[in-house]
Amino acid sequence: MSDEPTKILLSESEMPRRWYNIVPDLPSPPPPVLHPGTLQPVGPDDLAPLFPMALIEQEVTPERYVDIPDEVLDVYKLWRPSPLYRAHRLEKALGTPAKIYYKYEGVSPAGSHKPNTAVPQAFYNAAAGVRRLTTETGAGQWGTALAFASAQFGLECEIWQVRASYDQKPYRKIMIETFGGVIHPSPSELTAAGRKVLAEDPDSPGSLGIAISEAVEVAAQNADTNYALGSVLNHVLLHQTIIGEEALLQMAKAGVAPDVIVGCTGGGSNFAGLAFPFLREKLAGRMAPTIRAVEPASCPSLTKGIYAYDFGDTAGMTPLMKMHTLGHGFIPDPIHAGGLRYHGMSPLISHVYELGLIEAVAKTQKECFEAGVRFARSEGIIPAPEPTHALAACVEEALRCKETGEEKVILTALCGHGHLDLPAYGKFLAGDMVDHELSGDAVRAALAGLPSVPA
Amino acid sequence: MSDEPTKILLSESEMPRRWYNIVPDLPSPPPPVLHPGTLQPVGPDDLAPLFPMALIEQEVTPERYVDIPDEVLDVYKLWRPSPLYRAHRLEKALGTPAKIYYKYEGVSPAGSHKPNTAVPQAFYNAAAGVRRLTTETGAGQWGTALAFASAQFGLECEIWQVRASYDQKPYRKIMIETFGGVIHPSPSELTAAGRKVLAEDPDSPGSLGIAISEAVEVAAQNADTNYALGSVLNHVLLHQTIIGEEALLQMAKAGVAPDVIVGCTGGGSNFAGLAFPFLREKLAGRMAPTIRAVEPASCPSLTKGIYAYDFGDTAGMTPLMKMHTLGHGFIPDPIHAGGLRYHGMSPLISHVYELGLIEAVAKTQKECFEAGVRFARSEGIIPAPEPTHALAACVEEALRCKETGEEKVILTALCGHGHLDLPAYGKFLAGDMVDHELSGDAVRAALAGLPSVPA
């Protein structure tokens, strides 16, 4: 075994003090977000009912760096800097000459990268005098993170969880309540949006689109209440760049630079968080990694979607964002990587993809879980279903190196543990997991429902 | 907030290279373990059918230190050295002048301190040519640890889990299988002991005693198979001392010495792991901490049991050990801290307690979960039910300091996370948790069944 340490650690005093905004470093800016009624770019006033001004400013800032407030750094220190691992044991199991590194975000209170943005969002809202945050959650990672973050700044946190997940994943609900959050199954009787759905279908299993509508409705109608979103938007990606900034320092400590970076993409915040600081270095000519997004084959917005203006939610209530999308009416198959079941891709990642700065591949569910089990048995961490997509691509690259003899340096984002996703592993181990075929008809139908926006 | 870091970390190169054996430092040696038939001290040959000679030697070694093999250190590096936290946010929530530190073992692959001994046990067995390990598990922490450790050294691992837990905690079973372990509900049709129980009661919920019998039977009958135990024995406590050795280095880095050390006790391995290296320092006059064991009020072997020779298992198949016991026939109430539901206490801890070197207190379940929720909301980690006992005693001590104004330094062992124990938190938060009264009659009846051993 190598003398190189298994974990490359940073001390708290080495933790980056700034988030990185990639926009000013890109050859062209991303297209503006449009008001769905006027089709004109949205301004701060359009967003003020839902978000505090500090976050609205971060959404459109032209600055390359944004200082992280001390109060946020203090909470980050509960788990940050997060470890970078050299996967000695996985390399040995694969028999590859490649060097594999993974940045592990499962050490956070919620068990994923989500608190990186939940904490500043709670901080800025509390600083603006907000009393309560609302949000939606699907599988529950984001809801857990926001409940924890709210507790740190004395905010109430109210969460609408998609009914089907609420019933199937009781552990998540309890974790949210343990952190002090209030959780409702969605659709609920608490909102007009929820009541409307229940009137039509009392047994509705809910959807992320409905849950968003409920959370937004409550925030919009109460002056002391704001709404928080866990991915997609620029300020969310900004907060996540602390992952990549740390990884840059850690790779430098290890004396290596990545040849290949792979990360999984749902809304895109984890991928951008790791990749954007490295992309800055690449654009500046200081390193030359291949950067590869990995998406689920059943929800492949980058590899099979189109680049067009679309709504962020299923119901069509949000502003229009130019992004890679399968159509806001597209309902992905019920794969276990709930965090990747999103019809669109972050506008900023979509733009970077259009510019040819990153690649994308799609992976099927069973290949991903096979990589997840292999990883658990060698490295001792059971990954969440989402990052098994990154691991599958990582294994593929490492086995390619085994054939060619290349000693490539591969860096991947292990964005969370799978402790609350064990039933999915049970299904895989029992041979009961299926790979859904993507329906071309369903994609065509959803894309036909795209809003019409003149070029 | 203090400038002192939240996490006091050690690099892998600072990790201790030796385990600590407290026996030679005690004013008198612990009483011998006796053969139940002859009532004579057991020798190596009595234990050889179940354990490899390296572990039998460690069980009785007169040496103060035992070198940790390189192969074990390599696996430890997946999560060790574990972090020592300064609980800034808990202190603030309590308004105490006390300084609270906790050593966190939940970062391990199994989520608890158990892999500290599972890894060397698997290593020594593999080195001795053993092909398979068997064990029992209750709640599942130990089974998970041994499954993970076995995978690291190419061993098969077969686990009998108490039927009631097997049915109630499916996540643990899946975690064990993900690490490659084979798990059976106990009683099973696979052993004579299991078949006997099932013949009498086909719906038997099982017990730890039955599960031990099944695992031991398979190990005893197969030359290529050994048995592994997760607590109680000297060599298990020895392996766990890496916790305290690291904590000593970390407290020194922080420039403080503990005034009070609190840890929870079931079989005692986590408590001894943290406390024994500090007790060495105390015996040598280099520091003077009060060392306090915290046990559940419904299973208080130290505070309500007697010090006598008793069997380690319910069925009465093991050698006789002199220990604090409630009687091997005592069945503790079904509290959620499954890891503390053991009728006896490690002989070595019992001996140290008899010598007056440590204190003991008992805590009721609801007080413990209240401390657990308070801890989760301030520190971001949801503790396993077992260490909530230590946290409850920690909170009690910190609030005492608040009254007196004393700035005591409190050190505690947070031996695992509670991700797979969330239903217990759900019960507590819903107000459905009960505190069981300890039945004096049940204890008297169990103590009446103690084996007769002439003084």
From TrEMBL, chains A, B:
The modification N6-(pyridoxal phosphate)lysine is found at K114. Keywords: Amino-acid biosynthesis, Aromatic amino acid biosynthesis, Lyase, Pyridoxal phosphate, Tryptophan biosynthesis. It comes from the Bacteria. InterPro entries: Trp_synth_b-like, Trp_synth_b_CS, Trp_synth_beta, Trp_synth_beta/beta-like, TrpB-like_PALP, TrpB-like_PALP_sf. Residues 78-416 form the Tryptophan synthase beta chain-like PALP domain. Pathway: Amino-acid biosynthesis; L-tryptophan biosynthesis; L-tryptophan from chorismate: step 5/5. Its EC number is 4.2.1.20. It catalyses: (1S,2R)-1-C-(indol-3-yl)glycerol 3-phosphate + L-serine = D-glyceraldehyde 3-phosphate + L-tryptophan + H2O. SUPFAM superfamilies: Tryptophan synthase beta subunit-like PLP-dependent enzymes. Its cofactor is pyridoxal 5'-phosphate. CDD domains: Trp-synth_B. It holds the Pfam family PALP. Gene3D superfamilies: 3.40.50.1100. It is an enzyme of class 4 (lyase). HAMAP family: Trp_synth_beta. The beta subunit is responsible for the synthesis of L-tryptophan from indole and L-serine. Belongs to the TrpB family. Tetramer of two alpha and two beta chains. This is Tryptophan synthase beta chain.
